[in-house]
């Protein structure tokens, strides 16, 4: 089960309970999406995936497999590997920090208020800022 919060056109989906580890942040204006799964870890990073407003996908999952058609698939193994699909969209494997920096720069449309700081996963509402991962406890306190 998940709890949804919408702030300045940004949809933030957080789990009701600690054992549900998906967090999804969607920009309704740019259609960019950022997904975090805290249950899956690679070295010192949690799984993140970011789809920018053009549909390009970035992930820090070095074991990601992309199936292009029934006869062709691509198995990623290292950071900085990239494939361009027939549609012109790209799939890239990058370190989490790089994806966070790219999302911080490209998630919003011009003049849109920056509600999420992807570098430290902070949600900004008015004058208040709090960690995205603290929203589970806040939601449960309201019930």
Give short descriptive properties of this protein.
single chain; 143 residues; mainly beta; three-stranded antiparallel beta sheet; 13% helix; globular
Q: How would you characterize the overall build of this protein?
A:
With 143 residues, the chain is mostly beta strands. The chain has one domain. Helix content is 13%, strand content 45%. It contains two helices and 13 strands, in the order ββββββββββαβββα. The strands form three sheets. An eight-stranded mixed beta sheet has the order 1-2-3-4-5-6-10-9. A three-stranded antiparallel beta sheet has the order 11-12-13, with no helix packed on it. A two-stranded antiparallel ribbon has the order 7-8. A hairpin with a 4-residue loop joins strand 11 and strand 12. The relative contact order is 0.18. The C terminus is likely disordered.
Short description:
With 143 residues, the protein is mainly beta.
